[in-house]
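Retry 2 of 3 after timeout on previous attempt. Resubmitting structure tokens to design endpoint.
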């Protein structure tokens, strides 16, 4: 399987501040990915379509890991 080079991509990771998301963000950073966006629910309510459209603008890859837990 061919790997994808993410070093020059803008990557959005929903849930990137959570338990699993922080591990993914740190892994990507260790592999040289520099442009990682982690939206926070306090500022970016992803249940709102307009917020989603704004957050994903000019993003190459979205990884959705956000969940309501607890």
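Retry 2 succeeded. Sequence:
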């Amino acid at each position: 399987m061919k790997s994808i080079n993410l070093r020059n991509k803008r990557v959005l990771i929903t849930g990137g501040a959570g338990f699993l998301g922080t591990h993914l963000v740190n892994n990507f950073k260790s592999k040289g990915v520099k442009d990682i966006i982690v939206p926070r629910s306090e500022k970016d309510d992803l249940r709102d379509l307009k917020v989603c459209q704004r957050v994903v603008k000019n993003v190459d890859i979205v990884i959705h890991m956000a969940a309501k837990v607890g």
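Attempt log closed. The helical segments are 19-30, 49-56.
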